[in-house]
Specification:
2 copies of one chain form a homodimer. Chain A has 16 helices and 16 strands. By secondary structure, chain A is an alpha/beta fold. In chain A, strand 13, helix 11 and strand 14 form a beta-alpha-beta unit. In chain A, helix 10 packs parallel to helix 11 and helix 15 runs antiparallel to helix 16. Chain A is globular and about 60 Å long. Chain A starts with a strand and ends with a helix.
Amino acid sequence: MFQINKKIPKSLGRAGIISTPHGEIQTPAFVAVGTKATVKSLTPEQIKETGSQIVLANTYHLYLEPGEKIIKKIGGLHKFMNWSGPMMTDSGGFQAFSLGAAYGNKLSKFIGIEKLKVEKLNDLEIENKRAKITEDGVEFRSIIDGSKHFFTPEKSMQIQRDLGADIIFAFDECTSPHASKDYLKEAMERTHRWAERCLACFSSPGQGGGGVGLFGIVQGGRYEDLRKESAKKISGLGFEGFGIGGSFVKEDIATAVKWVNEILPEEKPRHLLGVGEPIDLILGVENGCDTFDCVAPTRMARNGSLYTSKGKINILNSKYKNILKSVEEGCGCYTCQNYTSSYVSHLFRSKEMLAATLATIHNLYFINNLVSQIRESILSGTFQKFRNKFLGTYKI
Amino acid sequence: MFQINKKIPKSLGRAGIISTPHGEIQTPAFVAVGTKATVKSLTPEQIKETGSQIVLANTYHLYLEPGEKIIKKIGGLHKFMNWSGPMMTDSGGFQAFSLGAAYGNKLSKFIGIEKLKVEKLNDLEIENKRAKITEDGVEFRSIIDGSKHFFTPEKSMQIQRDLGADIIFAFDECTSPHASKDYLKEAMERTHRWAERCLACFSSPGQGGGGVGLFGIVQGGRYEDLRKESAKKISGLGFEGFGIGGSFVKEDIATAVKWVNEILPEEKPRHLLGVGEPIDLILGVENGCDTFDCVAPTRMARNGSLYTSKGKINILNSKYKNILKSVEEGCGCYTCQNYTSSYVSHLFRSKEMLAATLATIHNLYFINNLVSQIRESILSGTFQKFRNKFLGTYKI
């Protein structure tokens, strides 16, 4: 499933190719987030034009609406949303937790260049919220209608197989970054037992196959001993690849992520869950990750925050009204090739839907172009030079 | 500027070609409404794919935001919004009135298959509202910031020339459909004087030219004598084409519109302002109109109301969740070629932006395909057959 093309000397990083039933993914790669079987505001043709190779959809959301059975009947997610390239689904665990247990508690898995903004919750509080975690699985209430649902590792496998993505994830418990170490350990061990149940389910007759890859998720928070224990355990179970879960700030990438990747088997792909800011991508690759997903590039785009090689700009700033050049000169994206900053800012001020489309295209192109440049630099042996130049130019 | 290809026997209707600096328009044609220099939720490439030949932008909105001078600096509307085909701008008169005088009074120019839903306003009330009409022009307040502005015929010409559309309209006063006949007559006569001022301004050195066509607007409400007087007066002034203004319900097309088109010179194109529902298009062509603009197809699309050959459907109806066929079988639009009703309804239920895009593409394609079929039927001498079949099948 995974082939390494070239490694970064004296580093965990590498460029490679992941093969899936719907085509290859040249890594490092950014996975465009298409939560509800749509990358917000884009058609699949537009997604492809941004250089995206793979789309992630969310098991939790699609299970609730329209339901995985309808999607299966249509022929799976690819047909449902008209995307012919590779796809991933997450396990549903994170949303069952964040939209269940943590719902309304300002607890968010906000990742990237900003510090985590969370409220402390003790384990008991988590237990009393909308999700209830037991050895068997997670009971949660729908964000749509408050109805009760129960996800188990086996249920997550069934839903994901019905959705029909190329890469699916084992059901895991994503804990609060402020949970106690004791609770983190308990949740991690439960995640390990769930991982074994997912593999058993996936390997049972009629369940796996079709070239679909099941990835195990490593947890363990910010504790070195837990991360290493989790990486060792998950490595030994026979997954096709790995996801690194949890809540990360930039500082965690060279620690928690590195600890894990030093242990995970080199020959299998590693996905860093929920990370996708430019600097984090560079640090993530350097520390051994191959693929990344994150809502930030698309969500920020919809708020008018656009990437440039010098950092983010807010296109709603009044000065852009009169700027008759593209958002970034030399950018090859559809937006920059065809529209001025003045027009894009006009669409935002006018609250026009095309604003989100043009901004999303720009940000996704920027991120895809960045990972593509990282790949090229690895292949040509100039990663360090590229890395240092980018980090020297890009201002947070 | 206008060439007639073929006429409908014993009728005012015809198929023709309007030539503009940005290409030809095969008529009858529907003009896609791009109020703020964007057809809501679509890129120009998507607009073109629906079969749209021409886009209308609104003078009032673009004057307020971003301002016509910025658009002129970029090289005009075509460059600003990246649309290379023909364009129209309206005169700004209707919005100065409807968003000024009538603002907040439930007075709307709702046109088409529904009855006008209006509150009676007498002339005095109109005078006291946010717009003030004098012989010189209209004073109104911005819907954006409440600031005061003054449109005159000359100002409308200057703004429209700066915007740079291919077909522009003379500044007119669009009255309430419930205004008294006396007031209608007064407003119509003022519109005639404004028309002469627009022509004088457009003809003055450095103002006209470039192959841009100035269209005069016929008013007169639902009164036969006023409509005929207006058509005669406007016909004699030397415009390149005509707009038929006012508020129409279906019943008015065979009366008010017909009265006008029996008088307007056959060799010039006629645009019916604000009309675009399927049945109205057929009646409009039959009664001598060549082009039409209307927000209905795109606005309804954003609300989940989609055209089919049997009438409109509401894709939010729960039954569509399980319909694995396209919105209309055999429809050649991008949406029907690539997505099921189930997916489109999922996007609407999920409040995803792609819902508006896919629905708008479908509705615009439907309307463009309808006018294209009308044209073909005129050219092949089968208009009556096509008309009767369509009216027999399409249910309001």
